[in-house]
Amino acid sequence: xxxxxxxxxxxxxxxxxxxxxxxxxxxxxxxxxxxxxxxxxxxxxxxxxxxxxxxxxxxxxxxxxxxxxxxxxxxxxxxxxxxxxxxxxxxxxxxxxxxxxxxxxxxxxxxxxxxxxxxxxxxxxxxxxxxxxxxxxxxxxxxxxxxxxxxxxxxxxxxxxxxxxxxxxxxxxxxxxxxxxxxxxxxxxxxxxxxxxxxxxx
Length: 202
Description:
globular, Pyruvate-ferredoxin Oxidoreductase, domain 3, alpha/beta
């Protein structure tokens, strides 16, 4: 396998960095060489978070993904996905959380932020796309914080992992109710992927 590149983007508190660590940990356990890097802008205050993950059987010389070279884009919310969409290669795969999270500046100024114009833009740019409804994930899994695992579930095949590969990683990092919650979220994402590209979960 040539080098795989996955770009994850969201806002602080969504679990973007944890998701990137789970992907890298899975790759390393399977014998790949993996590198990660983060660009974090005031993440604790709801700022943008971008994580790069790259892995290969050989050496990965840089963790940073050049624009147009990401095999997979995982967008935790629509605005951030649009902001990072130029990283995705032609015919790349994208999975996007469909629930908008206003930036701190927008929230303070009272500006409205609707997801649909951003999602429409993404649909016009990406053929291989799955949109995950964060509210459905929260209802089915018991926590909105499990959206990151649902997104990984939807992207699992595009990342060239089997579902069991990710589940083993979850078991290495989680136990008890937390593990159960995240397994349910993973299954929601995997189910959305099984329905095919263009499917909107929810």
